[in-house]
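U., I forgot to send this yesterday:
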Amino acid sequence: MRVLFVSLNFSPELTATGKYTGEMAEWLAARGHDVDAIAGMPHYPEWVVAPGYRGRGWHEERLRGVRILRTPHFVPRPGRVSAVGRVLMECSFTLASLRWWMPILLRRARYDVVIAVCPPMQDAVLPWIYGVLRRVPWVFHIQDFQVDAAVRLGMLRIGALGRLLFAVENFFVARASRVSTITPPMRERVLQKGGVATRSWLVPNWADVASVRPTARDNAFRRAHGWADAHTVVMYAGGMGAKQGLSIVVDVAERLRSRDDIRFVMVGTGADRPRLEEAARQRGLTNMLFLPVQPLERLGDMLGAGDIHLIVQRAEAADLVMPSKLTNILAAGRPCIATAEPGTGLHEVLTTNECGLAVAPEEPEPLAAAIAALSDDAHTRQRMGVRARQYAEENLDRDAILKRMELSLEQLCELPPRQPADAGVSS
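Result:
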């Protein structure tokens, strides 16, 4: 297949949409498909264009078999990321990507399929036009219902702009050749927005279960930070933005400051991190440590060093996103505590499979109680960790998920499926 991805976020970003879109493209390229990507400049979660890309304009690069057509765009300043700033960034990317789209639209040779990744939903504009003009199927792959979340979180009002964005999103959902998303509740939301069940796919986010494996608790990462065997390390690792509502972790650390055996560790960056660090400093929380995003080669040891992992979301966004951090936590064989309501995909995964706990969002007392109880129960932590790894192996294997996606794409393009002899994935 000749496949074109359109995604503002892409490799080498290590988290969220950029991580999964890049890995999907690279996996297809490793299978022998011809894969291109129109992508923005790496900037997330720091909200700063990555070194090596600053000041650069449109250019091509090769990354693990994928030809990437880099597109310059506006990036809001860290700490000043607003709904308007995001819309400006996303629209600037779409407009600037015309540099690549004009020759693509005029070229005789066609792609077999185009995959537009949301967020941002504006990524669908030009794939839709291409599909109409060149009769090429296109897939609208939704990682996050961005407009719904922005409205629920108070980042965007239901005014003229909000109504317009909802209308545009529903338009693309209804007109895409296929709509794919990552959890059953999100697939239900697709149908509510005008999608058709027979044209919707479930493509869950995955874990690299071969690379991210359970490690010894007393590993190099833990020793490097001086955490003793008697310490329970409660870790949050991921983006620090408005969707997460991470102030609750500061509140819980304050409530549990008398527990000398519990250490809170926040790993990552984002628009909200400076405010969280300042809140912890003002409250004198010596039981709370902030660390930068860790290199990929340290991921396994970092996750293994945590005894309890936190997945924190605000209630308003819980059924609109599935935190990308969950997959690697499960693959690492560690239990987690999530702020999630019953009925959300996150709540169902943890409670049905007994690999973690779920408590009410935005309420510090239940979260503090759950952390204290699980900290005191090493046996339950171990049992949940075993269940977590088992779930990852059975449900989150990257190759199994992407082979199903590959088959669906080939059927959409009316191409013959690959022969069994070609079933292996090159590395």
